[in-house]
């Protein structure tokens, strides 16, 4: 039963990570920008949910949706103000993203303060017990929402004209333009979508963690591990890698130490990249 | 050489990073001045104003600022009859030794600071070589004690000992019908945890518990894997010097995973922070030491300090009381030494006894460290009853 608990903990951690990683890889796939500001968007999503639920008395479920929408809109503004100039420029875009991250994180510290905050989720204290296996209510909720969001995203990317346009830009921006698709507009919308996913992920984990301006750093780091492992730009790869990393982290933390879990994940990436430099599902 | 659009963009991006970095660095300093004025003591407060332990910095600064205001107003330190003015210059370590070294070097070389208050057991040893080289003095606000001793005569430890705190808690717990069962101490996975964690385990074992330590990184936010392993088999979980934000998440997740024992906090209790995440029911019966926030309220000066802290930060972080009392000791030592030379003040400090907000405080510890560098403090125990922390046994 301990193994079942390890798997459950791993899947729930992987579900949150997947939302972060999918947003990251979408942005990279379309814009070729390594978005270091993604962790900050995750953090802003959590704080948005905090203020909506505590200051505006918005129900938590509505707050998740609003957080996604608000952070998505903020991301679009950021893209138009900053990242638009760096579409297709990996190095310059990454440097701009680092600068923006430093700026926004310090602004967050000034505005939100350094004291930790937290919000109560509707399923706090509730759990499903099967023998020795304890499945916390909020973690089940995170898994459920993550599955729904990923299914919705898959539908959007593979079953709609918007998704086709997005993939067309990813494969060949010049050819997409000849078909009447505006790559810059698609990039901006993709950046907004990635931001919305980060915002939703932040709002989702808020009741499970405490909120701090630095809370986006750890998921960002693991998000990068996931997308490199899965193959930069591959949504399916990011999903599977997130799940795998979540389970590895859970297993190593349980049977060894949490610190070992971090470097084990990086070790795993190094081994995979040795044999598959483009990641598990990456392509040229 | 032809400058391409790509190169220009890279240059603009790099310039942006440099500007942001400069802005961030500038944000860390709000006071000017150095020790060049012979009647002024600048205390370099190297603490966390950002990162996971950011809440520590604000609380520590507020307490030290209250002490500075009191000392300056009452002219506690005088040399040749002329009052000595204290001031604070703050430096953000972000609770990161590398950043701490950078800002400490800046404090020494650019700002001329010679008195430091440094937060963090992992930070103090990192900055000691720099500070020692400049004949400066460190007040280490940190758990652990590897950094004090005869070979570090200019480092003082105005803080409590988490081992003494755990001893006090377990004495109270067992003296009030608590069972000797399984106990897990949770410590940070760093030098501090590696050195003090085993001592804490030994203390618990000597008290009759089956004990082991779980060391966790300061960036860990998911405690479910650890708690899945220990929650149902453990009677007492002792939180050592982990940030309150981590304690809160860990406590909540332990309860979710079936922990029915009690939590103990041997690095004081930040109840407000814990209550934001875990529920009052989760924390009922938790024990903490040293109960400095209660100790402070036993004196008139302490009550004024409590009021000042509430005004400045909205809450009272008991551990910061030591920063206040330590400044009173420093003022007394300057009077005694009649000098601002850190070496002379260091010699005078162990001879001082002052009435602080925690009662009579002084430096001792020669029996343990071979030199009097550890602050003598009371180790009262508090308990969470009906969602509130109350003093159950005063320290002596």
Q: Key features?
A:
heterodimer; A: 284 residues; mainly alpha; two-stranded antiparallel sheet; 11 helices; 3% strand; globular; B: 396 residues; alpha/beta; seven-stranded mixed beta sheet; five-stranded parallel beta sheet; 17 strands; 44% helix; 20% strand
Question: Would you summarize the structure shown here?
Answer:
Helix content of chain A is 73%, strand content 3%. By secondary structure, chain A is mainly alpha-helical. In chain A, 57% of the residues are buried.
List the helices and strands and how they pair.
The complex is a heterodimer of chains A (284) and B (396).
Chain A: H1 2-31, H2 38-54, H3 60-81, H4 90-112, E1 127-130, E2 133-136, H5 137-159, H6 161-171, H7 173-178, H8 183-205, H9 217-230, H10 235-255, H11 258-275
Antiparallel strand pairs in A: 1-2
Helix pairs in contact in A: 1-5, 1-8, 1-9, 1-10, 2-3, 2-4, 2-8, 2-9, 3-8, 5-6, 5-8, 6-8, 9-10, 9-11, 10-11
Chain B: H1 5-27, E1 40-47, H2 54-73, E2 78-79, E3 82-83, E4 85-92, H3 97-109, E5 115-119, H4 124-133, E6 137-141, E7 155-156, H5 162-175, E8 182-188, H6 191-206, E9 210-216, H7 224-230, E10 236-239, H8 244-256, E11 262-265, H9 271-277, H10 280-283, E12 287-288, H11 292-296, H12 300-313, H13 321-337, H14 342-348, E13 353-356, E14 359-364, H15 366-369, E15 374-375, E16 381-385, E17 388-393
Parallel strand pairs in B: 1-4, 1-5, 5-6, 6-7, 8-9, 8-10, 10-11, 11-12
Antiparallel strand pairs in B: 2-3, 12-16, 13-14, 14-15, 16-17
Helix pairs in contact in B: 2-12, 2-13, 3-4, 5-6, 8-9, 13-14
